[in-house]
Amino acid sequence: PLELLRAKPIPKSLGVSRRKTCKPEVASSLIKKIFSHYVKMPVARDAYKIVEKCCERYFKQLSSDLEAYTNHAGRKTVEMADLEVLMRRQGLVTDKMPLHVLIERYLPLEYRKLLIPVAVSGNKVIPCK
Fold first, then answer.
1. Residue 95: which domain range?
2. Looking at the domain assignment, is residue 107 inside a domain?
3. Beta strand segments in 4-121, E
4. Is the pTM of this model over 0.70?
5. pLDDT by residue (tens digit) across 63-105?
6. Is 41 exposed, middle or buried (0-12, 13-18, 19+ CB in 10 A)?
7. Could you give the CA distance from residue 127 to residue 26 in angstroms, rounded to a whole number?
8. Structural domain count of the chain
9. 106: in domain
10. pLDDT: is 72 or 7 the higher one?
């Protein structure tokens, strides 16, 4: 009976993994593709590293701003209105250039369908709120 009460040793293979935890980041290949698409000329490798750092800082600032707007509203979920307020503060969304126009202009059709409400047959609106 005493042998049953003793703790069994944990095998070494099931112990804590030694892998380093990595922080989430935008893929450098994606940044390179987007940047080279808009630059339309050869770019040095050092310049890509600087662009990656700038993108990382931009997205950190963007996410912290969205978090602040969401906390201020007393919610735990970021909504489209928070993003619209942020883009308005950045000067991307104005009275002459609403968010829906930017969505239609720059996003593919499958994302447009998810973000912009559309009336379909049967008196239904997609996406539902």
1. 91-118
2. yes
3. 118-120
4. no
5. 999 999 999 999 999 998 898 899 999 998 899 988 888 888 8
6. exposed
7. 28
8. 1
9. yes
10. 72
